[in-house]
Amino acid sequence: MEKYFSGITVIPSLNIECYFSTRGFVITLIPKEQTDICKLKEWAEDFPQQGMPEWLNGITDDGTNLFIELTGGISYTLMSSYDIGAIKFTSRFIIESKEFGAFTNLKFDELIFWGGEVNLINPVAKAINQDFKGISYDSPEEYRKSWDVEVNGMKFQVINDILVKREIVFKGIPDLKNNINSRIIYRFNEKEEFVNIPQYYDYMETLLTFLTRKHFHEYKIQLTNEYNVNGDNWRKAIAEVYVNKGRIVSEIKPLEAYDVIKIDRIEEEFPSLFALLNDVNKAPQLRFLSENSDEKKYIKYTQITDISASIEWEYHQSDKGEDNEKLKKESKKFAKKLVQFINQDDVDAKIKDKVISIIQSNLNNYKPSFREIMEILYYKYKDGLECVAKDRPGSLEAYDKEDFLKKLKSFKNMRNMATHHQFKWEDGTDIFTHLMIIVYFSIFNRAGIDQDKATECIRDGFFRIF
């Protein structure tokens, strides 16, 4: 965001009035009163330890209302021989609105994510018909879908839509490139407060990460409210939301529509998948995915440990993990029988104690090894994996069982070395994408999506294995 603002604000926790200016997401505060310099300095020094974010609400010189989230990174600087008490910090969220007066609580009933990669998971071409007669637009009923979702006890509606602006640019030709964008809309029954935006934003980020197989995304965010004018309901944009991504990423090879999983593929099961991806207790671990599309062609050694953690997590969250609990109980019973049998022998007590210790340590807390976990999930999703691999000749090797198990052993060795900071590359990297697909099958399964539909989704999302 290359926007510049300046104006006046109040720090809520201090009730100190300050002048502020923004340069992108770098915010500078200067206390209005000289007597507040020390108080502001103490606050700046303590803020990173406070843990909870704080929001500033300011009014600019042109009447724009800003809401700025403080999350840390505050520094106090001696500007000159005359200390004006300026502090600087970086912000994650800045909300710009011209609809409200200064120091009011911004509320909204729709949060809209549009354009950018939202256009990929919901292709805008669905809204357009092209034939020998020219270009026409489909009715919104043809492409608009909505679901009632519940995530961590929060209920709202998710709408998958396409916004069509019928603007003409030259000799009656519509501007398709700039005036058609897909939208994911969160609609709320009651107005939401702006402080909840970061949480809803994270929900969207997780969904896009899963569907695009990368962590960095670009799109725009808007807040709207519904108004009643002369008996008619109208919806009006009230604010723009800017997010600090932490870095500027310029992708040489950006994603295409055939590189992502489309929302249409999971239409019926969208509520359950959306809830699972964002569940505070059951959400999958997706750290193994690439940062951006250019990095998909590489495998970092940290991704080896990340996907290993994800595989173990999926196992323990699956029905196989429930089976393991049964095995734990059986192994404890068996350990007791073995101990009773050993105690009947008159062998030296030191040997007896050693044997009993080994048995109890291994059986009282029985759990499969990492290699066993990988094999269990491999056999569970083997058919789906083979279907996907056969459709990707040259880009995804279709290994037979024996070869795949050899690669699993090699991958396990890499994982073990990585955890001990003695990493060495082996040919286990050949099945990294295969393991990624197995994790995706497990996530789909936990969301209640059958293997046939999951296979179709993965065929979409893994069409191009960079």
Would you give an account of this structure?
With 466 residues, this protein is of the alpha+beta class. It has three domains: 4-97, Pnp Oxidase, Chain A (Roll), CATH 2.30.110; 107-280, no CATH class; 314-461, no CATH class. The protein is built from 13 helices and 17 strands. The protein has helices at 37-50, 118-121, 176-179, 197-212, 270-277, 301-317, 319-343, 349-363, 370-380, 382-390, 401-419, 432-446, 451-461, and strands spanning 4-11, 16-23, 26-31, 54-60, 65-70, 75-76, 87-97, 107-114, 128-131, 134-137, 145-151, 154-164, 168-170, 173-174, 180-193, 220-229, 232-243. Strands 1-2-3-7-5-4 form a six-stranded antiparallel beta barrel. The chain has a two-stranded antiparallel sheet with strand order 9-10. A two-stranded antiparallel sheet has the order 13-14. A hairpin with a 2-residue loop joins strand 11 and strand 12. The longest helix is centred in the C-terminal third of the chain and has 25 residues, at 319-343. The protein is globular. The two termini are 30 Å apart. The mean pLDDT is 84.
